[in-house]
Amino acid sequence: MTQRPPSGPAAPKPVRLGRDAVVAAACGLVVALMVGASYAAVPFYNWFCRATGFNGTTQVATSLPTDGLGRRIAIRFDANVGGGLPWKFQPETTEIEVRIGEVVTAYYTVTNQSARRTTGQAAYNVAPLTVGAYFQKINCFCFTEQTLAPGETRQMPVVFYVDPKITSDDDNKNIDTITLSYTFYPVRDGEARPVAAGDGDARKGNL
């Protein structure tokens, strides 16, 4: 009679994750991906608007136009102030007429009507929204935060041109009026910036 060798300890069975654990891990991964996507969405959206002019987002010019056209177009200026910012904000003139491709400087005036130092940042767009890709800003007070001393009035320039390529766009070539609109919003935790100094009649302001 053949004797069987004594059996050793039984091999451990592989541990399998329960169904609940697998579902929980998958849900956790989905949540992490959604949180990451939400943080990436805002900068991606801002980049997309700047690159395409979507939603009336104007462009920042990297060079001057190389050619101009005889055709003229009207530029209207709009100014608004968001809640919580005690400023009076208005364009120096509500409308001008410029040649397409012509570099133009326009001025806005802002006054801090409070007895404290305040900081604001201007958001901007143009209408019709489809012309955002052709409205090129060379310099603008909207590029940086603006800090005003109590009662201070400041004149702030915006330097821009309308890209001649607009005349080759079938959807925009017949537009004869563009409205440039700004809205200043409070920067509650903004770091105080130096206040520009100068004579009362001199044009001044941060570009």
Low-confidence stretches: 37-48, 190-207
Tally of helical runs: 1
- Gross geometry: flat
| Class by alpha and beta content | alpha+beta
Kindly state the mean pLDDT as a whole number?
A: 77
Number of strands: 10
> What separation lies between the terminal Cα atoms?
103 Å
Alpha-carbon Rg, integer: 29 Å
Q: Encode the helix/strand succession as letters.
A: HEEEEEEEEEE
Question: What's a concise summary of this model?
Answer:
With 207 residues, the chain is α+β, with helices and mostly antiparallel strands. Helix content is 16%, strand content 34%.
What does it look like?
The protein has one helix at 19-52; strands at residues 59-60, 72-81, 87-91, 95-99, 104-112, 118-127, 135-140, 146-148, 153-162, 177-186. By secondary structure, the chain is an alpha+beta fold. It has two domains: 19-52; 59-186, Ctag/Cox11 (Pfam 04442) (Sandwich). The strands form two sheets. Strands 1-7-9-5-3 form a five-stranded mixed β-sheet, with no helix packed on it. Strands 4-2-10-6-8 form a five-stranded mixed β-sheet, with no helix packed on it. The relative contact order is 0.19.
Task: Lay out the secondary structure.
Blueprint (H helix, E strand, L loop, with lengths): L18 H34 L6 E2 L11 E10 L5 E5 L3 E5 L4 E9 L5 E10 L7 E6 L5 E3 L4 E10 L14 E10 L21
Parallel strand pairs: 1-7, 2-10
Antiparallel strand pairs: 2-4, 3-5, 5-9, 6-8, 6-10, 7-9
List keywords for this structure.
five-stranded mixed β-sheet; alpha+beta; single chain; Ctag/Cox11 (Pfam 04442); disordered C terminus
